[in-house]
Amino acid sequence: MRNLPIQGRLTVWYLLSLAVIVTLFASGSWYAMRASMYHSIDDDLAYRMQAVVPFVESHSLSTPDSFNRTFTNSSDSSIVGVFVQITDASSRMLYESDLLTSKYVPVLPRGHLDGSISRSTVSHQGWTIRVASKRVTVNGVELTVHVVEPLTDLLTSLHELTLYFILLVSIALLLTASTGYWISGRALAPVGQIRREADAIDPTDLTARLQVPRHDDELGKLARTLNSMLERIEAGFRSVERFTADASHELRAPLAFIITAGDVSLRRPRTREELAVVLGKIVAEARRMSKLVEDLLALARGDAMSGSVALEQIDLDSIVKETADQMGPAAAVKQLEIRLALTNRTVQVGGVASDLRRLLLILLDNSIKYTDKGTITMSLAVDRSDVSIAVSDTGIGIDPSSLPQIFDRFWRADKVRSRAEGGVGLGLSLAAQIVHRHQGTITVDSVPGTGSTFTVKLRTSPIA
């Protein structure tokens, strides 16, 4: 059944469900009809017994001759046509109706000793009868009166009813199978439409979307989910396209400069001083290109990582001090001061030391690039289970319209300044990627002309 298509499986389940329901209903109806028929016959036998017993008692019948003569000559309407068998205490036949004699009905068992009516069903040579028996005493002789009703008509009716039920159940199941197959086909038609539309989507056309059914049901939700997935795929593909184009552009510029500088230097003899100047520029561009390749590889490795990284306990305040000392000379070149605002206790977080160190270096380097005068402040704050790292500067700030793009790859607030400083617009993307792998958040508040504050929130780790 697992190999059947969904339409076939639904049809089978429809068929099985209705088969069980109809079978139970038909069986219950059949047994209810049978019980009703037997109850009616038993009531009729009891009624006839109430006529036969007084008739026997009123005529003081106790011998075979008296029984034959009285029953044969009787014109009592309550007795005429009643099938009777009467036996004595030793089960000797005293009287038997002609029909019972012709059918060779054996001597029936004796009735109850308490004088109540007992009922039983007897089959003999293919003939089935229903018997009501009662013990009576006439002129000191113990008799058992059996009133008999043939079950031929009842059994014929039950047989016909069985055939009718089988026929009706078969027709019902056939109709159910056909209707169920049709209904399931109609219900699954949108699925087929979705599949055909999905198959028809051109891999080169990422703007194609599936048609959403009019009804807001499960299939409509499925179509919207698939469309949402296609939108994410398109967004990812467009991001890769932009990333590739930007990376190519960023790599093309230093390569073109290196090639041009080399070609120009080789066109005529150069003095040692001239070659030194050209080689210095080539080395600077090569270093810039090396930094770009390093950042690209870091981003690629980060993208390849699934889920969060394996975290270990790290003293965050120590890393903050190390990065401040490391970036101190670069800040001093621009006559900037790096200030620290730390807590009075050791702050531990779960993370990777090298990644967190790189994160803080990126934020400090970004602040130094865009700050011409003033100070850069790094602060730590602990709030319950979170620790916040804030890097604030007094630089040029960021225009509010540009804030949504600052973590995009190759985005630069000041392209001229960034290129002059050697930046390619990957630092903040790397920072956001590191924070995301550590299951944290990074936000920025900035006022143009006043400065910017980058805030990273991570979860603290208990000290072992």
Q: How is this structure best described in words?
A:
This protein has 464 residues and is of the alpha+beta class. It folds into three domains: 6-158, Beta-Lactamase; 218-302, Signal transduction histidine kinase, dimerisation/phosphotransfer (DHp) domain (Helix Hairpins); 308-459, Heat Shock Protein 90. Helix content is 54%, strand content 18%. The protein contains ten helices and twelve strands. The strands form three sheets. The protein has a five-stranded antiparallel β-sheet with strand order 2-1-5-4-3. The longest helix is centred in the first third of the chain and has 53 residues, at 6-58. It starts with 5 loop residues before the first helix and ends in a 5-residue tail after the last strand. The model is unreliable at 415-420 (pLDDT under 50).
